Structure formats: structure tokens, C-alpha cells
UniProtKB/TrEMBL annotation:
Record-linked Pfam families: Gelsolin (PF00626)
Matches recorded under InterPro entries: ADF-H/Gelsolin-like_dom_sf, Gelsolin-like_dom, Gelsolin-like_dom_sf, Villin/Gelsolin
CDD domains linked: gelsolin_S1_like
One example GO MF annotation: actin filament binding
GO CC aspect terms: actin cytoskeleton; cytoplasm
Name recorded for this polypeptide: Gelsolin
GO terms for biological process, alphabetical: actin polymerization or depolymerization
Length: 394
């Protein structure tokens, strides 16, 4: 989109017409904080005071702790909240001075219900209030995980099914009788996701799901097969071995590993409905279930949301190299880093600026097709974590 179109050219808004006068007011914060103090999930004695990783799933409008042995495992029919608290060296502080920073991710499965997604979003804001507004909030979509989220779970596993919803009933894989399960294993393409960022995604158990660039694990109950595409990487093979090990911990079954280059690999293709297909003469390609943002041709852009002139305006500030000095604590800024959308709220930003950032960021994503799949995160001045400054300075 040319720089003079869409939201790049300054636009004017009258925030009083949007019925958001109380948003970010002291009344608004007090109400949300009082609500947060009654939420059992946040009041476990550790949230807000200790470093750590915490995961909750939304179940019937409630925030339920996710078992630690399932961290990194998500169901596409659910919504989750993830809190990461860590101590980092304070930017601009003295030697060794540290601050506890928080990142909250609300993860929305591709088949989560509207009520679950809405509860996750609301509870994310509530958790931020519990942390006195010190957290960075991230919206994560199953279809396009950010690099920072993938770094949290180098063994990210996405399965079908979901918990019972307030409006919709979806059975989890654990509750349902056994059916063939086909897992696709592939590497996150972004270097910023980490060297070991490998994803495991359950796909339709059919030969049409196979791709020669990845590794697949077929669990048919009485036996586990591993199908290695002829172009798969050693890391994907290693990850498949971990997945198989996890599966065989609960049950003792035979495991057989076959390469696409072997004639015998036809037995897996036949089992998946591809009778008559020769694995040595067929090119296997299948679209990946996750779309990754391509930032190779996208330049970083910084926009300012300000009412310094009496009217709320949103306009382009800078393209290309962006640094800490390009941010002004009296306004709100939107950073399109190429890999994600960041909203930075200055300490001195006005009530109108703070109230309108949601609407402006939504409009920005809606009007820029190449940004539609990007994660959206919000951070406040002074509470920035590593992921934000990495996005700014990368």
C-alpha cells in the first residue's frame, strides 16, 4: 500500500464519540483490579512476585491451570493464557539493577469458540491489572505463531479437539476413542524463533497431508510409524524421535522408521489411503497448517498516535532503522516490525491516546493485508521486555 493511503496519512478521530471515556481512567483500573483480586488463578502466591512460566486454559468461562507436563501442548479448539515473568537488567539502570518484567500471551486456537476467545482476552487484561499494568500483552493465533512465542515452547505441539465450551461441546483427543493420529513435524522458518524451534501439528490422517520436506509420525494405536520426507532436516528427524519417545512412555508398541526414499515406505501411504501411489515417483507437497509472516520484503515502520494538536491523529513517523530515541513518552506508537505489530504506550500519553490504541491497531491490521497474520502486542514505557527491544533494534 502506498505511504499516502490507508492509515499512513494522519487521520482525525473524536474519541468522545466512541463511548470510551472511562477506559484507562482511575475508575476503570480500580474496577478491573478489584475483579483481579478475586480470581483464584492469579492469587497463588507466585504471580507478580516470582520469575516463571504459567499456563492456563479457558474452561467454561473459568481460568484453569494447565498441567506442567503439558506445557507446550495446545488444542486447536481451545483458548489459553500464558504468563512469562523474568528478571532482566533494567534498561538505562545502574550496574546489575534488575526489574521483573511480564509477558502475557492469549493464544487462540483455530477452532476455539467466541466465548472462550472473549474470556481469554478479558482475563488477559485483568491479569495485566493484577500486575499493575506492568505486562506486555500479546495476541497469538494458532495459524501464525510469533517467534517470541515459539521460543517459549521449542517443543510446541498442536492437537485437535478441545475442552467442553459454554456454548459448544468438543471432545479432546484424550476423551475420544482411539483414532489414527498423524503428526507433522517441521521447523519454524524464522531465525529469531531459535535454533531448536520445531513445531508438531496434528493433521488430517491422509496421504495428501504428507510433504517431502517434513517428518510425519503416524500413531495407529497398535504401532507407530515415522515417515521421513526425502528433504527433511536432521533437526526434524531428532524432534520426531522425541515425539515417539513421549508416545511410547504411556504404551509399549512397535515403532518403525521409514524414509520416503525406501520402497517400503509405501506401506504408510497405503494405510493413509494412497493405494497405487509410488513413493519413489511421487512429489509430496502439502500446505503447512501454520502460516509464517514473511518479513523479507517488509520494512519496519513506526507510527505515532497523538492528540498534541487538539485532534487525535495517527501518522507515519519513520521507516527503516528505528531506535529507542524515536519513541516519545507523551504519545502512543505503533511499530510494524515486519514480524509483528507492537503498540508502545508512553507514560505521559493522554487518556484519549490510551483509549484509542485498540481501534487504531485493528484498523491498521485490517487495511494492510501483509500484516493480517502478524501477532499484536502492547507494552508500556518502562516495562518493555527483551522481545520488544529485539523487534525495535533487529
Amino acid at each position: 500500500m502506498p505511504p499516502h493511503e490507508g492509515l499512513v496519512h494522519p487521520k482525525e478521530y473524536d474519541w468522545r464519540d466512541s463511548n470510551v471515556e472511562l477506559i484507562n481512567s482511575s475508575v476503570d483500573h480500580n474496577v478491573k483490579y478489584q475483579s483481579a483480586t478475586t480470581e483464584p488463578a492469579w492469587n497463588n502466591g507466585f504471580i507478580g512476585s516470582d520469575s516463571g512460566l504459567y499456563v492456563w486454559r479457558i474452561e467454561d468461562f473459568e481460568v484453569i491451570p494447565w498441567p506442567k507436563d503439558k506445557y507446550g501442548q495446545f488444542h486447536e479448539g481451545d483458548s489459553y493464557i500464558i504468563l512469562v515473568s523474568e528478571k532482566i537488567k533494567k534498561r538505562g539502570g545502574g550496574d546489575g539493577e534488575e526489574v521483573l518484567v511480564h509477558d502475557i500471551y492469549f493464544w487462540l486456537g483455530s477452532h476455539t469458540t467466541q466465548d472462550e476467545a472473549g474470556t481469554a482476552a478479558y482475563k488477559t487484561v485483568e491479569l495485566d491489572e493484577f500486575l499493575h499494568g506492568a505486562a506486555t500483552q500479546h495476541r497469538e493465533l494458532q495459524s501464525s505463531p510469533s517467534a517470541s512465542f515459539s521460543r517459549l515452547f521449542p517443543r510446541l505441539k498442536i492437537l485437535r479437539g478441545g475442552v467442553r465450551s459454554g456454548f459448544t461441546h468438543v471432545e479432546t483427543n484424550e476423551e475420544a476413542p482411539h483414532i489414527d493420529t498423524l503428526l507433522r513435524i517441521f521447523k519454524h522458518p524464522s531465525p529469531s524463533a531459535g535454533r531448536d524451534a520445531i513445531l508438531v501439528h496434528e493433521v488430517e490422517p491422509t496421504w495428501k497431508s504428507l510433504d517431502e520436506g517434513d517428518v510425519f509420525v503416524l500413531d495407529r494405536g497398535d504401532k507407530i510409524w515415522v515417515w521421513q520426507g526425502k528433504k527433511c532436516s536432521p533437526m526434524e528427524k531428532a524432534k520426531a524421535a522425541q515425539v515417539v519417545n513421549d508416545l511410547t512412555l504411556a504404551k509399549h508398541v512397535d515403532v518403525e522408521v521409514l524414509s520416503q526414499a525406501e520402497t517400503k515406505s509405501k506401506v504408510i501411504i497405503d494405510y493413509l489411503g494412497g493405494e497405487g501411489i509410488n513413493p519413489l515417483e511421487t512429489t509430496f507437497t502439502a500446505e503447512r497448517p501454520i502460516a509464517f509472516a514473511d518479513s523479507t520484503n517488509r520494512e519496519k515502520k513506526l507510527f505515532r498516535l497523538s492528540d498534541a494538536n487538539g485532534q487525535l491523529s495517527f501518522g507515519l513517523v519513520k521507516e527503516g532503522n528505528i531506535g529507542e530515541n524515536d519513541f516519545d513518552g507523551n504519545d502512543v506508537f505503533l511499530l510494524d516490525s515486519g514480524n509483528g505489530i507492537w503498540v508502545w504506550e508512553g507514560k505521559g500519553a493522554s487518556k484519549a491516546e490510551k483509549a484509542m490504541w485498540i481501534k487504531v491497531s485493528q484498523q491498521y491490521v485490517a487495511q494492510h493485508e501483509d500484516a493480517a497474520s502478524l501477532s499484536v502486542a502492547k507494552v508500556r514505557e518502562g516495562n518493555e521486555g527483551r522481545s520488544f527491544w529485539t523487534a525495535v533494534e533487529a
